[in-house]
C-alpha cells in the first residue's frame, strides 16, 4: 500500500464516520416528541438510558435503532473507503469478515463514529457516552466480541440495576476480549498480521478510555452511593 493513499484513506474514513456519529438521535427524537432538549432532562446525558427514563419508550426505541445503526453504517463505509483508496479494490468488512485492509477501515471509522457520538459537531460537542454505538461497532468488528461484552453488561446491570456500572465494566474490558479473539481466532490462523494485532488493540483501548472517561460522574456517584438505579419510567425530565 502507498503511504499517501493510506493517509488519505484514514483521514477520509475518520471524517465521514465522525460526521455520521455526530447525528445525535437522542436529541433529535426527544425534541420531536417532548419538545425538549434531552440534555436538560433527567441525568442530562444525551444517551439511550436517559431518553428511555425521561422521554419514554417511543423516542427511546428510535434512539436505540439509530445509535446502533450509525455504528454499523460507519464501519461499512469505513471498510469501503479504506480498502478502495489504500488498495484500489473495494471490500466490505461485515460481521468479522473481510480482508485485513477492510478490517482496518471498520476499526478506524467505528472509533471515529463513537467520538462523533460523544462530541457531536452539530450539537455543540455535547453528546452521549457512546455505549450503544460502540456495541454496534464491536458487532461489525467481530460478533463473538460483542456477545461476550454485552453478556457482561447485562449480568452486571441486571444484578445491580446500575446501567452505568455495567457500561463501565463492559467498556473497560472489551479491549481484552478483542485482543483474545483476534489472537486466538485470527492471528494464530495466519489471517491477520502482528501489526494488525497491535494497531487494532490500540484502537480498542482508545475507545475504551473515552467511554470510561465519559462515565466519570457516574463512577463518582457509584462510589458515594448516589447513582440512580434504572427504571423504565417517563418522568418528563423532573
What does this structure look like?
- It is a single chain.
- This protein is mostly helical and 238 residues long.
- It has one domain (3-224).
- Helix content is 71%, strand content 0%.
- It has ten helices and no strands.
- The protein has helices spanning 3-21, 25-34, 48-54, 57-87, 100-118, 131-141, 143-160, 163-187, 194-214, 216-224.
- It is globular, with a radius of gyration of 18 Å.
- The termini are far apart.
- The mean pLDDT is 92.
Total separate domains: 1
How many runs of DSSP E, i.e. beta strands?
0
What oligomeric assembly is this protein in?
single chain
Percent of residues in helical segments?
over 70%
The separation of the N and C termini measures 55 Å
- Classify the beta-strand content into a percent band: under 5%
Main sheet properties: none
Calculate Rg over CA atoms. 18 Å
SSE topology string: HHHHHHHHHH
The DSSP helix count reads 10
- Overall shape: it is globular
User: Which blocks of ≥5 consecutive residues have pLDDT under 50?
Assistant: none
Structural class: mainly alpha
Residue-averaged pLDDT: 92
